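ERR on first pass: missing label on line 2. Operator R.T. fixed the label and resubmitted. Corrected input:
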Amino acid sequence: MINKIKKIFKDFGLSEIRAGMKITGKQLTNDKITVQFPEERTPISPRFRGLLALRRYPNGEERCIACKLCEAVCPANAITIESEMRDDGTRRATKYDIDLFKCIFCGFCEESCPVDAIVGTHIFDYAFETREGSIIDKEGLLEVGDKHEKAISKARQADSKYR
Amino acid sequence: MVDIEIEIDGKVVHGYSGETVISIADREGIDIPRFCYHKKLSVAANCRMCLVDIEGNPNPQPACSTQSSFGMKVHTKNEKAKTAQKAVMEFLLINHPLDCPICDQGGECELQDVAMEFGSDISRFTEGKRIVDDKEIGALIQTDMTRCIHCTRCVRFGAEVAGIVEMGATGRSEDLKIEPFLSEGIQSELSGNMIDVCPVGALTSKPFRYGVRSWQMNSIQTIARHDLVGSNIFTQTHESKVKRVVARDNENINETWISDRDRFSYQGLNSDNRILIPKIKIKGEWQDTSWDDALDFAANGIKKHAKEGSQIGTLASKNATLEELYLLQKFTRGLGSDNLDYRLDAANPSNAKVLESNISLTELETIDHALIVNSYLRLEQPMINHRIRKATLNGASVSTINAKAFDFNYRISHSVLTSPQNTVATLSGVLKALLDKNSQTLPDYLNSVSVHQTHIDIANALLNAEHPVVVLGEHVNGNKCSDQVATLVSEIAKASEAKTLNASLTGNAHSAERVNFKPENGKNALQILSSDFTAFVLFDVYPTFDCIDSENAIEHLSHDDAFVVAMNSFDDESVLNCANVILPIASFYETSGTHINVDNIAQSYSASVKSAGESKPGWKVIKVLADLLNLQGFDFTDSSQIADKALSLTPNTSEIEVPISNSKMPNITTVWQYTPYASDVVVRHASSLQQTRIGQISEASVCKATAKLLELSEGDLYKGVPVNINESVAEGCVFVHTHLPRQC
Amino acid sequence: MISDQAKKEIDIWVAKYPEGRQSSAVMQALTIVQKENGGSLTNELKQAVADYLEMPTISVQEVATFYENYNNKPVGKHVIRFCHNISCMLNGSDELISYLEEKLDVKTGEISKDGLVSVKRVECLGACVGGPMCQIGDQYYENLTKKGIDEILEGLT
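pass 2 clean. output:
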C-alpha cells in the first residue's frame, strides 16, 4: 500500500523528468564533443595509414627509385611498377599503379620503402565515380604527395623518434 | 688420388688427397660462405670469407685454399669460424655501398645473402666510403665499380677461360681497382659470363638494366639454338617477355659458360621487326588477314602451282627445330616432291657423305693436337673453341689451314694460309706427307701433289699426337669443292688415326641431317633457286642474308608465275618482295622443339614465352597446312610426338665416291663469313650485340698482290665492305668478315 | 716506341729467365723505359712494353700502378720521394712534407711550376734508422730537418 502511494507521488511529482533535466542543465554549459564532419575532424595519429601518396625531395625530384620492394611485399598485389633507366642514368619508375580496391592499407609498402617515397597520408575520405578510378597512377600519387607534403612530413617528424 | 677421410662439423666425409676443404664441403652440401672461390676458376683466396676453424691450427684457415689431409677436423660453424667470418664480412661491407634497392643484382646477390647471415646490423665505420669511377666496357656489361669487392673472379675468368686478359687489378691497397687497360670495350666472345661470375652488382647485364627485379621472373630451362653445341640455358621471363638469359650447368655440354650470342640474342625477340599478323599479297598489295584466310590462300596457291609436286621447292633455315624440319620434309615429300634443302649457304650442296663428328665435347679437352681447317672457330663455335683452349692449357698444340691468320686465343704452332681454290691441294699435301710417313701406298690423285715443309710439320704433329682431332669449319660451305675438302679431311683423319669434328654443320643442321632434309634425287638449294619452279615454301629464310647467291635467288623467287609461301618470324624486305603469303611463326624460345648437337645429343625444350602477336609455332602451321592439303600422317597433337617420330629416323648415308681432281676454280675467290652476331635472324636483331666490337666487324681483308689484281686500295668497297689490305690473308682470295648482307 | 738501346738492356733481363717467361722482366723493362722517357710512363709505352714482352697490356698496367717507383703521370726533373710510413711519420715526416709543399708551392703528386721538382709520398724505403728520409734520384737523404731540406733544394738544379 505504502509503495503504491509513493509511486503516485513520484509519477505526479515529475521526479524522473527533473533528474533528466538536471543532467541536461549540467551539460548545457559544458564543451560539446560532437564533431561536425567534414567541417570538423577528429585528431589522427601520426601513424594513421590512409590514402597512399608518393613524395618528392625538397628540390622537386621524385623519391621513388623503382626498387619494387613495395610491389614485392604488398600482400594484396595492389602495386604494379615498371622501371627504366632515365636519360641521366638513374633508375626511375615509368609506371606506378596502385589499385585502391585491392589495397588493404596495411602499410607494408611504407615500411619497406628505402627512400620514404610511398607513404600513407591521413586522407580516408576519398571517392571515385568509375571502376577504373580505383587505379591511381604515378602522377596521381605524386599529386597527392605534393598537396599534402606538409602534413606528411609533420607526421613523419612526429613519429621519427619511435622508428 | 687417395681417398681420404676428414671430419667437417662432426660429419665424416670423403675426399681425395689434395682436394680443397671447400670442394669437399660443397659436395657434401655443407655451406661455407665464399666470394672469390669459383669451382671453374683458379683459387685466389683473397676474399677470406670462407675462413673455417681447423683443429690444430691457431688461426682460422681459408677453406678454398686449404688442402684436406687425413684426419683433418674442420669446423665451419663454431665460435672461432663464425667470429672470423663475421669480421671479414664487416671489412667487406666497409666500402660496399648500400644501394641494393637500385642494384640489378639485388635479390640474387651473393653478398646480400651472406650479409644476411654474417653481417652486423650496425656499421662501426664512420669514415667516408670509397667511390670508384665506372668504366665504359661495351654494350653488354654495365659496370658499377664502387660495388666491387675485389674478388677478382672476372680477372681470372679473362685470363683462364676467355683467354683474353682484359680486366685487371690496378693500384694498391685502398686505391685498388678492377678495370680494363683502356675503356675500349671488352673483346671476348664469352664476356657475358663475367656477369654470372661477379658475386655482387659490379658487373651486370646492360640490356637488362633496371628492367625487372630478379624475384619477378620465371626461370625456364631451355636450349640455345644458335650454334651446334646447344648450350643449356635458363630463359628468365616476365609478363611473357624474355628478359634475360643465364647459363645452366651441364658439364657435358657447356659446363657453366655460354657465349655472348646465346646470352644476349633474346633481345631480337622483342624487336619491332617481328611479323605479328598473317599477310597475303593481292594484286601486288600486302594486306593483313586472318589465319584461316591466309592458310586457305596458301593451300590453294600450292594446290594450283605445285603441279603434283613436280614444281615445288622447299627451303628451310638451319636454325629450325627438329620437329619443324621433320614435318616440312614430310609435307614436301607428301606433295610428291623431293626438292628440299636447308644448305642455303652451300656453294656445292652435293649428296656426298657428310663428314661425321666422332668426338664428344668432353673428349675435346683431352686431345693433344688439333688441326683446324677452314674455320675461325673462336667466333663460329665459342664453346668448342673453349674446349680446345682448355686442351692447349694442358699442352696440346694447334695447327690451322685457313684463308686468313685468325686471332685465336691460344698459340697456333703451324699455320698454312690457303685460298679456297688451293684448299684441296693443301690438304692433299698434308695427306701425302702423312701417307709418306706411314709408308703407305699413295692413291693416284696424290702423285702429282707437291708437299711443303709446313705440310710435313702438320703431318708430324698429327702423327706424334696420341689423341689428335681434325676440325672442319664453316668456310668450307662456300667452297665449290666442299665435298673434296670433306673427303680429304676424313682421309687425313684416317691416316693419322685422328677423330673428326664437323663444325660446318652449324645451328640445328644435325637435325636437318637426321630427318634427311635434303634431296635424294630431287633438286638441291642451288638448283631450286635457279629453277623455274612455280611454287616455293620458305621456312624462316631471309634470302639476302641466307642464300649464297642471293641476287639470283631473289630473282627466281620473285618471277611472275611463282607462288611463294613464306613462314617467317621477322619482317624482311626481300621476303616481302617475293612472297605471296606470309605466315608468322614463333621464334626462338617461343616454340617447343628439339636441338641435336654435335655430340648427337637431342635436347628437347618447351616454349618459354607465348609467341609474339598472332604468330604460331612453326610445327602447328605446317601441320594445319598439310591437313588443308589432305596430306596423310600429320595427326600430331604436340611436339614431343613429332620429336619421337623424327628421332626414330636414321639419316641416309650416301656412299658416293668423291673424286679428288683439280677442279676449275676462279683465280680469285671470296670467303664470306658473317660475324657471329649476324649468323641467324634472331641474333641479327639483337641490338646490343650489334654494338659490340665483334658485332661491328666489317672488313674485306686482302693481300697486296691480290689487291693489285683486283685493283683495290685501302678503304675501297669490295661487295659493299671496306677493304683492308694486309698480309695475313692467303693469296688469291678476299676474306670478307662482316655483318652486312651477302653480295655476289 | 722503345729505342734499340732500351731493347738491348731489356734483353739482358729477359735472358735471365727461362724461355717463355720473358714477362718476368716486366719490372726492369718498365724501369728502363721510364728512365728513357724522362721519369714517367705513358699508356703507349706500357702498350709497347706489353707487346715486346708478349704479355697482356693490363698486366703491365697492374705492375705499373702497384709499385711506387713507376710514375704514371709526367714528373719534374727531380722527384722527391718522401717516405711517410711509421718510423718516418713518428719522426715528423708529415710536417716536413707540408713544409716542402709550402716552400715549393706544389702539392704531392704534382710538378712545381718551373718543372724542376715533383713531390711524391711513398711507402717505406727501408731506411727507418734514418727517418724522416726521402729519396731523390738514386740518393737517400736521411735524418731530415727543415734546414736540411732547404740545403737539398738549393742543390737541385
